[in-house]
Design goal:
The protein has 206 residues and is mainly α. It is built from eight helices and two strands.
Length: 206
């Protein structure tokens, strides 16, 4: 009997491990709001926010910089990030607060939601760097965007793409890695700028 029970347990476990992932929730109020946040206009996103969001979360989202945002949000980074990232961080904070709202109102948080919100952040961070006209500065900005997005992805993975939870020790650990990568980026950018300056223009006489 013990062997039979163990065999049954192994089969059940194997079956569970190989079962396909559940399809994303696209119909609940939070799912609709998340979709609007990542795929529609800022005005459409704010209209899709659940009616009791403000009473549960303590604030009303605003539209600024063509994004639906948490007016009290920020990049929450232990190392300085480009100022261009601030609007995207505030929009990302709103997305995470939608997940917290779902949990606070007894709804199950679909992992697809957090992945979509994180993906939008990464796209927006890189898009924010495009406005920089200097190649070296733009490359440094892109490097910072990649580091910030990687840190966010790592944190989401640690939390199984569920409800965002503050982890006081995590920003310090991520900050060390981010600082190292951004320092390397700055050094490479400086080398690029020095090389560009040292190469004479065509037709220039020494």
């Amino acid at each position: 009997m013990c062997i039979a029970a163990a065999t049954t347990a192994v089969i059940a476990t194997t079956g569970a491990a190989s079962s396909p992932p559940s399809p994303p929730d696209r119909t609940s109020p939070v799912a609709v709001a998340v979709h609007a946040l990542v795929a529609e206009s800022a005005d459409a996103a704010t209209r899709a926010i659940p009616a009791d969001f403000a009473s549960v979360m303590g604030y009303r989202p605003i539209v600024l910089d063509a994004m639906a945002e948490n007016p009290h949000g920020d990049c929450s980074s232990p190392v300085p990030l480009p100022s261009e990232f601030e609007p995207s961080c505030k929009a990302h904070d709103l997305g995470y607060d939608l997940l917290r709202y779902a949990a606070a109102t007894g709804k199950t948080v679909d992992p697809h939601w957090r992945r979509a919100i994180d993906g939008q952040l990464e796209s927006r961070l890189h898009a924010a760097c495009i406005e920089r006209t200097d190649d070296g500065s733009r490359r440094a900005c892109d490097a910072a965007a990649s580091v910030a997005a990687a840190a966010v992805d790592m944190n989401s993975w640690r939390q199984s793409f569920g409800v965002p939870v503050a982890e006081p020790a995590l920003p310090i650990a991520l900050g060390g890695a981010a600082f190292a990568l951004m320092t390397l980026s700055a050094l490479l950018t400086g080398r690029y700028v020095r090389t560009r300056v040292s190469v004479p223009e065509i037709g220039e006489h020494a």
